[in-house]
Automatic annotation (TrEMBL):
Organism in which the protein naturally occurs: Nocardia jiangxiensis
Domain of life: Bacteria
UniProt keywords, alphabetically: CBS domain
Biased composition range(s): Basic and acidic residues: 202-211
Keyword Ligase attached: no
Annotated protein name in UniProt: CBS domain-containing protein
Length: 211
């Protein structure tokens, strides 16, 4: 997933010449952690954070945004991976980052956008893994699937160790899965049917596609 998939827009911005009190009011009104500062061409020239505004007010310095903003601003491009954005935010203690294309502001990504994407992505992966396993076993298994940060845990009854390995391998074929493991809850029920070998299942699917 990339910045373009989760960015928010339109973006509330201020100009370098915006009075500091006016910019501070915007921060308070919208509950933002920071505001991008842009020039007449919508190029990001800085960021005005809550900390910048508070420090300026306490020191009674500056009458406009340009005097207290942080510059240059740390920005990302639409094609930047969300994992990269998250790492930069944590390393630099940022709560939001402007998204620019050819230097022009096109959106902004906040930590809440990353968290929302993480939740949605894990839910999507869980759904795809469940569909893949149901297709493989014919819905004969009642497995509990949990996903966190792309790591899949599949809990329930398995016919044997071979089936556990097969199920893990199938889960790993789903895009976005970083790791997959099984957690057997109890021995298989007497007479529990074993799903077909993975190679046999794949061949059957290939035959169905050709047919």
């Amino acid at each position: 997933m990339y910045a373009r998939d989760i960015l928010s827009r339109p973006v509330v911005t201020v100009r370098p010449q915006t009075p500091l009190r006016e910019a501070t009011a915007l921060l308070a009104e919208h509950g933002f952690a920071a505001l991008p500062v842009v020039d007449d061409g919508e190029h990001v020239v800085g960021m005005l954070s809550e900390s910048d505004a508070l420090a300026a007010e306490s020191a009674r310095t500056g009458t406009n945004v340009e005097a207290v903003m942080t510059s240059p601003a740390m920005v990302v491009e639409p094609g930047t991976l969300t994992g990269v954005i998250a790492a930069r935010m944590l390393a630099l203690h940022l709560r939001s980052m402007p998204v620019v294309e050819a230097g022009v502001l096109v959106g902004i990504v906040a930590r809440r956008d990353l968290l929302r994407a993480l939740i949605c992505d894990d839910a999507s992966i869980e759904s795809k893994v469940r569909a893949r396993l149901d297709n493989y076993t014919g819905s004969r298994r009642q497995w509990t699937i949990a996903v966190a940060d792309g790591r899949v845990s599949i809990r329930g009854r398995f016919a044997d160790a071979d089936e556990q390995r097969t199920v893990s391998a199938l889960a790993m074929t789903v895009e976005g899965v970083e790791d997959a493991h099984t957690v057997p809850e109890s021995p298989p029920a007497p007479g529990q049917a074993k799903a077909p070998p993975l190679s046999e299942w794949l061949q059957r699917k290939a035959d169905e596609t050709i047919g």
